[in-house]
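Support request from a user on the community tier.

User writes: "When I paste my C-alpha cells into the form, the page sometimes reloads and wipes my input. The last time it worked, I copied everything first. Here is what I submitted, just in case something in the input itself triggers the reload:"
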C-alpha cells in the first residue's frame, strides 16, 4: 500500500512527532507503511494505526478508540494523540474523557482531554502499572549472573525502560550515542522486551531533565526522542518506588515538559502532557 492511498494525520505531543493512520492496514504491512510515512516526513518519530468503534460496538462496551503502534509496542504520547483525534473527529469541543485500547496495554486506558484552542489539547492519561521494577545485572555491557553493575529496569506491558540516574556509571552513554544505540539493541534482545527505552535523568527532585533513547525492534526504529511519555511514567514509578512515597515530578525533555504523578500505595500513575494536530494527509 502506498502512502498516497492512506489517510493519516500528524500530531505533535511535546515534540515526539507522531503519525496516526486512519486507513485500514494489515498488521503485517504496518512496519513497511510506517517506514514509508517516516521517509516522507523525517520529523515523525513513530507511527500508529487507529480505528474508531461503530455505534453497535460502542453499545456493547467496546472502547471508542483502538490504537496499534507499528511495532506492536506501547506508547503514551500516541495514546494521547489517538484520544485527541477521536475528539476532533467527533466534534467534541469541551473537556472529555476517552478510553483508548492500545497495543502493549492489558486494559483500555483513560485519557482526560481539555481543548485549549483549535486542535490543541491538554491531556492526562492514567498509565498502566509497571509489571515489575527490577535490576538489570551487567558486566562489560552484557547480561551476567554476577552483579558487577546494576541498572534499574521498569518492566511495562509493551515496553520496558532502563533508568539511568545522574550517579550511574552509564550516564556517559548519553554523550556516546553510537555505543548507547549498540547496547540498547543487545539489552532489548537479552530482556526479550517488545521495545526498550533508556532514560537518562538529571539532578533534582520535583523538576528533572530527562533524555530518552527508544528502540523498537518490531518497527526497526531507533530515536533519541524529543519526549517519551511511557519513559517519563516509568521514571516516575521508579522514583516513587525508591522513595516509598508518592511523587509529583516534572521532566524537562528536549522539546518540552511532561509531568508525572505516581502513587505506589494506590498503584496509580498519571501522566500529564499535550497533543496538537499539525497536519492531515
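"...and here is what came back when it finally went through:"
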Amino acid at each position: 500500500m502506498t502512502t498516497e492511498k492512506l489517510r493519516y494525520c500528524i500530531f505533535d505531543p511535546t515534540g515526539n512527532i507522531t503519525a496516526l493512520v486512519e486507513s485500514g492496514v494489515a498488521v503485517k504491512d504496518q512496519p513497511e507503511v510506517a517506514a514509508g510515512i517516516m521517509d516522507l516526513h523525517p520529523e515523525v518519530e513513530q507511527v500508529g494505526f487507529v480505528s474508531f468503534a461503530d455505534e453497535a460496538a460502542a453499545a456493547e462496551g467496546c472502547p471508542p478508540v483502538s490504537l496499534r503502534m507499528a511495532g506492536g509496542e506501547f506508547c503514551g504520547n500516541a495514546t494521547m494523540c489517538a484520544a485527541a483525534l477521536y475528539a476532533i473527529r467527533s466534534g467534541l469541543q469541551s473537556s472529555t474523557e476517552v478510553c483508548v485500547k492500545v497495543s502493549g496495554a492489558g486494559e483500555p486506558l483513560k485519557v482526560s482531554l481539555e481543548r485549549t484552542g483549535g486542535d490543541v489539547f491538554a491531556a492526562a492519561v492514567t498509565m498502566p502499572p509497571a509489571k515489575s521494577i527490577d535490576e538489570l545485572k551487567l558486566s562489560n555491557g552484557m547480561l551476567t549472573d554476577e552483579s558487577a553493575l546494576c541498572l534499574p529496569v521498569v518492566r511495562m506491558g509493551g515496553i520496558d525502560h532502563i533508568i539511568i540516574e545522574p550517579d550511574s556509571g552509564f550516564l556517559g552513554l548519553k554523550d556516546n550515542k553510537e555505543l548507547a544505540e549498540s547496547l540498547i539493541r543487545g539489552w532489548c534482545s537479552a530482556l526479550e522486551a517488545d521495545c526498550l527505552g533508556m532514560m537518562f535523568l538529571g539532578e533534582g527532585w520535583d523538576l528533572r531533565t530527562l533524555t530518552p533513547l527508544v528502540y523498537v525492534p518490531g518497527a526497526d526504529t531507533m530515536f533519541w526522542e524529543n519526549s517519551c511519555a511511557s519513559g517519563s511514567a516509568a521514571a516516575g514509578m521508579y522514583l516513587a518506588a525508591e522513595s516509598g512515597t508518592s511523587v509529583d515530578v516534572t521532566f524537562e525533555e528536549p522539546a518540552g515538559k511532561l509531568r508525572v504523578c505516581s502513587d505506589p500505595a494506590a498503584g496509580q500513575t498519571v501522566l500529564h502532557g499535550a497533543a496538537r494536530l499539525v497536519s492531515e494527509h
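Agent notes: The reload is a front-end session timeout and is unrelated to the input. The radius of gyration is 18 Å. The chain has a mean pLDDT of 92. Escalated to web team.
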